[in-house]
């Protein structure tokens, strides 16, 4: 049985002056749009505050997959679910009460995601598997787009796939996903792929999404 493949382009490398237009360019072929929220505290970069993110979420013609790279995720993450995100992912490294926050995200109507940075062991958090709808494995250090895929994270993707087992949990990878790396991640068990530079720096972003999906699907089938 083949896995369903999802492509969730990150707008981190899109034209911030016309994000609504950028999202429309990929609307017909993308599953969700990935919103990287950075606070310049948890990661050394700033993208959107809650007000700016809210505007993007309201205007997006695609469901929004919010990736919160912020401190105090316990209070912030449920707010993103409440304003209409389809999926909200928090980092284990920035959350005090992971279980309660995951439950709050779900109670607000969004899918709950749990992310780990490259230096964090996913096996330390396998007990949360029944509370998550998606695990996110970072294949770069979070903070900036355009980084190279860390191939030494592939075993962690495989470990996460084993933790998931038969549960209907998505396995997302974020960082350096391109036509050269997506098959590696898919072969390790990933089914949901964040691609930023590869999509929005392509001459035809929609065509690139279709290419990435086909490459991943060939491995997943």
Task: Explain the overall architecture.
This protein has 221 residues and is of the alpha/beta class. Helix content is 34%, strand content 17%. The protein has eight helices and eight strands. Strand 3, helix 3 (73-82) and strand 4 form a beta-alpha-beta unit. The protein is globular. The chain starts with 5 loop residues before the first strand and ends with a helix.
SSE diagram, text form:
Blueprint lengths: L5 E2 L11 H8 L6 E6 L11 H10 L4 E6 L3 H10 L4 E5 L6 H10 L3 E6 L17 E5 L15 H11 L5 E5 L7 H6 L4 E3 L2 H4 L4 H16 L1
Parallel strand pairs: 1-8, 2-3, 3-4, 4-5, 5-6, 6-7, 7-8
Helix pairs in contact: 3-4
Summarize the structure.
The chain has 221 residues and is of the alpha/beta class. It has helices at residues 19-26, 50-59, 73-82, 98-107, 154-164, 182-187, 197-200, 205-220; strands spanning 6-7, 33-38, 64-69, 87-91, 111-116, 134-138, 170-174, 192-194.
Overall morphology: globular
Largest sheet: 8 strands, parallel
Share of residues in strands: 15-25%
Helix content: 25-40%
How confident is the prediction overall: mean pLDDT? Answer: 95
Low-pLDDT parts are: none
Structural class based on helices, strands and sheet pairing: alpha/beta
Question: Taking Cα atoms only, what radius of gyration do you get, to the nearest Å?
Answer: 16 Å
What is the topology, as strand order, of the major beta sheet?
1-8-7-6-5-4-3-2
Count the E strands.
8
**Helix-strand pattern:** EHEHEHEHEEHEHEHH
The quaternary state of the protein chains shown equals: single chain
Q: How many helices does DSSP assign?
A: 8
* N-end to C-end Cα span: 7 Å
């Amino acid at each position: 049985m083949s896995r369903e493949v999802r492509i969730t382009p990150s707008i981190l490398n899109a034209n911030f002056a016309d994000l609504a237009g950028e999202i429309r360019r990929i609307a017909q072929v993308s599953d969700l749009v990935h919103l990287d929220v950075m606070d310049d505290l948890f990661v050394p970069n700033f993208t959107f505050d809650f007000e700016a993110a809210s505007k993007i979420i309201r205007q997006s013609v695609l469901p929004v997959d919010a990736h919160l790279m912020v401190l105090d995720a316990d209070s912030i993450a449920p707010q993103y679910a409440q304003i209409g995100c389809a999926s909200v992912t928090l980092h284990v490294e920035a959350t005090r009460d992971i279980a309660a926050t995951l439950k709050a995200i779900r109670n607000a109507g969004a899918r709950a995601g749990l992310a780990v940075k490259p230096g964090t062991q996913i096996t330390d958090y396998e007990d949360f598997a029944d509370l998550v709808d998606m695990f996110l494995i970072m294949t770069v250090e979070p903070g900036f787009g355009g980084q190279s895929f860390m191939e030494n994270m592939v075993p962690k993707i495989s470990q996460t796939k084993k933790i998931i087992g038969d549960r209907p949990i998505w396995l997302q990878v974020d960082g350096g996903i391109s036509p050269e790396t997506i098959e590696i991640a898919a072969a390790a068990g990933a089914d949901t792929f964040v691609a930023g530079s590869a999509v929005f720096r392509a001459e035809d972003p929609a065509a690139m999404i279709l290419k990435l999906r086909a490459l991943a699907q060939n491995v997943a089938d």
